[in-house]
Description:
InterPro entries: AI-2E-like (IPR002549). By secondary structure, the protein is mostly helical. It has 14 helices and no strands. The protein has helices spanning 2-62, 70-109, 119-122, 128-140, 142-148, 150-186, 188-203, 207-242, 248-260, 266-279, 282-297, 299-306, 315-329, 333-372. The chain is elongated. It starts with a helix and ends with a helix. The model has no long low-confidence stretch (mean pLDDT 76).
Amino acid sequence: MDKQSELRQNKVFVNNMVESAIRIGLLVVLLVFTYDIIKPFIIPVLWGAIIAIALLPVTNWLEPRLGGRRGLAAGLVVLLGILILMSPFLTVSGSVYDGVTHIADALQEGNVAIPRPTQKVADIPLIGNKLFEVWQLFATNMERAITKFLPEIKTVVGTLATILSSAAASFAMFIIALMISGGFMAKSDTVSQTLQVVAVRTVGEQAEEWTTMIAATIRSVLVGVIGVAFIQSMIIGTSFFVFGVPGAGILTLLVLILCIAQMPALLVVAPVMFYVYSTADTVPTVIFVIWSLIGGLSDNFLKPMLMGRGVDIPMPIILVGAIGGMLFSGIIGLFLGAVILSIWYELFILWLNKAPETKAALATIVSEEEASD
Length: 373
């Protein structure tokens, strides 16, 4: 009887295992198919959530001034954001189109005129002589120069085309993300309650504190990284326009991209410095160099001032998370990396704060055991 009961139990156990394996397998298949379906929307929705968190205070400020119509307030904020995005994009696109058209017409008519380099170019340490020779060749014999450097020119043109197509795709994605953020802001109360319920189910008592921390961290990164990058690009870009640097609009955009990516603006500014040095007088060159250096180094004092405001997380934690996240998963990693490191920091502090309670509990157990002995 015992043997029959054991066999029956084994059979039931095997049946349960097979049934559980089938259910788990079907669930995995469902999750894989679901991920494939929503994968194209993950990045725009994440950006929409980030933009909504950043712009929600503006929507809250507009709502009572529009008679409590939250949807209208959110729509106006989104419309303003689209206009702000489109203005520089259309300006830069027009500048690039005009430049390409002008170059193409000049090449067809044979009226390409490049100013010859001055002796100051040859006096530049290390690279002066080589730069002088290449510049002189393009200024005196354009056809021969193009033939000689055709592979390099093709590489540069291909790279620029890739950058421009990527910028256009990113622009379209940000427009979609702004529209999604409008929906989040219009229904912010419902979305907030839903997220709080999910957060409580996921992390328990710390849910409300952590959701507030995540929102504050995203705003901190937005101001401390993207805001500072915008200020830097405006300072440096203004110097480009004031000194009449060719292609000032697209150069300013490149500076903005580099600053957001936490790369030195000197990568763009240094060649422009050489250009100004070779074409302008000494005093304007010195003013331009000082102006550009102030813009390039301004993040050293702007980030400590702006990043970490309103957040209990130390600024180095947020900065390291933002830079590491960007290196791992692009621009959106600026926010995800900062949020993830902030959560780990909070977990670490929570673990440290629990240590005295653990020690007290152990001491109580030991004293009770000693008393019972």
